[in-house]
Design a protein that fits this description.
By secondary structure, this protein is mainly α. Helices cover 54% and strands 0% of the residues. It has four helices and no strands. The mean pLDDT is 80.
Amino acid sequence: MGILPRSSYYDKHYRQSAALIRARQPYLIKNIFSGLGLCTFTIAVYAFTINAVAQDDFSDVQVPDAPAQHPHTPHTAAERAYSEKTLKQRKAETMNR
């Protein structure tokens, strides 16, 4: 069983071979300009977004003085099973004790 020869653009130390450098040479300038264009577009979108958000004026929005208060105790399943009238009667019984 023989070993298949390596057919690659990289040598045994994973460095570029002369063939790979020649194959990539025509695309080097195009890739540089494409990368610069993408970076420029990304930075421009980011700068525009930050500038647009910074211009928002929230002076017309009314902010409450204190946050909304939640009920002190949440309803449990047992309390939901009773009607309002039954709950009031049980509270009255508890206070009379």
